[in-house]
């Protein structure tokens, strides 16, 4: 793990009590996935509607932490309740992509559409590289230098400063670098057959129905 993704075990530990309650109450992992998309959409609305400054920055940060919490909880709830499925993996990935686009959509109100579209497209590339690698038998890669968590931090910075174009440019450039780093790691992993899984399969331990 690298970048802010290295904090995932710590973050999961802080959510342990919430996760237990959700399992006890039989909350659907898929519901948590879509709740994360909702929090991301709310963060996008905050970017669009609130004037740039500390209030907007805190609001977006809180909503995106909630979005990340849902992304962490859905897999944990699925595993602890015995409801992990391969299709849950698909739902997870779809939810992550929609959540990213939902918050970036709010940037259309504060930045040129071309800048937002470029950032949105670049932000998807690290995940596509990881998924392609996993399909070929490499481990599913996560982390930075500008992974999902860093992109959330950058969007909170955008809301706090109003520097939409520079932050979106940094997000896009960082995402491209991250995609390149992951591609190099995938290539290295696939040159080591002993570390690969069966081609065409995914590690679905965190998948949800």
UniProtKB/TrEMBL annotation:
EC number: 2.7.8.5
Top-level EC class: transferase
Name listed for the protein in its UniProt record: CDP-diacylglycerol--glycerol-3-phosphate 3-phosphatidyltransferase
Molecular function as annotated in GO: CDP-diacylglycerol-glycerol-3-phosphate 3-phosphatidyltransferase activity
Record's keyword annotation contains Protein biosynthesis: no
Transmembrane annotation, as ranges: 98-123, 153-181
Domain of life: Bacteria
Keyword Transmembrane part of the UniProt annotation: yes
């Amino acid at each position: 793990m690298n970048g802010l993704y290295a904090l995932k075990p710590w973050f999961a530990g802080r959510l342990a009590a919430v996760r237990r309650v959700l399992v006890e109450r039989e909350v659907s992992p898929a519901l948590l996935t879509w709740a994360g998309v909702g929090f991301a959409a709310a963060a996008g609305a905050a970017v669009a509607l609130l004037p740039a400054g500390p209030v907007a920055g805190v609001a977006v940060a809180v909503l995106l932490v909630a979005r990340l919490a849902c992304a962490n909880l859905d897999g944990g709830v699925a595993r602890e309740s015995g409801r992990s499925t391969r299709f849950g993996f698909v739902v997870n990935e779809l939810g992550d992509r929609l959540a990213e686009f939902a918050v970036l959509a709010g940037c259309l109100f504060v930045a040129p559409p071309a800048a937002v579209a470029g950032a949105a497209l670049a932000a998807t590339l690290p995940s596509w590289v990881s998924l392609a690698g996993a399909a070929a038998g490499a481990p599913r890669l996560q982390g930075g230098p500008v992974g999902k968590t860093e992109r959330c931090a950058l969007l909170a910075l955008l809301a706090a400063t109003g520097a939409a174009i520079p932050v979106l440019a940094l997000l896009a450039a960082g995402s491209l670098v991250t995609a390149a780093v992951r591609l190099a790691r995938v290539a290295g992993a696939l040159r080591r057959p002993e570390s690969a899984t069966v081609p065409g399969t995914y590690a679905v331990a965190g998948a949800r129905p």
